[in-house]
Amino acid sequence: PTFQSPFTTRVLSISFCKANCRRRSLPSIHNNIPSKSRLQHYSSNNSGTKSTTGLSSSSSSEQLKTLQGNDIYAAEEVIKKSRFIGFASHCTNWDDAQILLQNIRNDHPKARHVCFGFVSSSGATGSSEGGGSGTERCSDDGEPTGTAGVPILGAIKGEGLSDVVCAVVRYSGGIKLGAGGLIRAYGGTGRLVLRSAPVEVHVPKRTMRIATRTANSGAVYAASAKFGGVTSGESYNDRGELEVAIVCDEENGDRLKEALVDGTRGGIMFL
User: Fold this and answer.
1) pTM (2 decimals)?
2) What does the alpha-carbon distance between residue 162 and residue 68 come to, in Å, rounded to a whole number?
């Protein structure tokens, strides 16, 4: 089944059951909500959503592994007559994640449970930018505590992913699975859809803007090129000094800064 999403171009679906295995691509879907750019000690609220802050697997100095592009990936399993449908997408903030989750609920009104896990590298609720201490959320949505949301969250973290929302819809088949069975089913479906999706690695960047005498411009551009920096926004201030922004990989930031100071003999200001 397809559903509307603010950051979806197409849905890729993989179905698994005991007797067969098939893969199909579903048609492109869009809606009128504009797409956004991509790149807490445990407590419980009335909706059954658990939130964690400061537990993200990625920091500003680490590479960030996430799902590729703006697709929503789907996979399905049938376990003891219960149908489990997993959905996963790249998502950088909780506001967008809630929109996706609501769209899934709207598309599956007869499903007994829509459980999810969400991991973001950003601690900001509505921000689509990285940084911050990170956010994790999960919900059992009426399933026994700890049998659905936590296993899905564990699947995301187990795959080393961040900036990802993963939801599992359950249509009950009338056979009780027990706590252990639910944990395996929700966690397994989460892993299934996450492993079906291509991933990409985002390399953290550092941006610095500097001001220096125009005579030092050669040293500035040489140091920038040496450490893979990209310059932009060149301008001159009221003192006639060159101002320029430099973006480089985070791991090269300190060495580039040192090279700029050395190359200009200290005649540089970091703005």
Assistant:
1) 0.63
2) 11
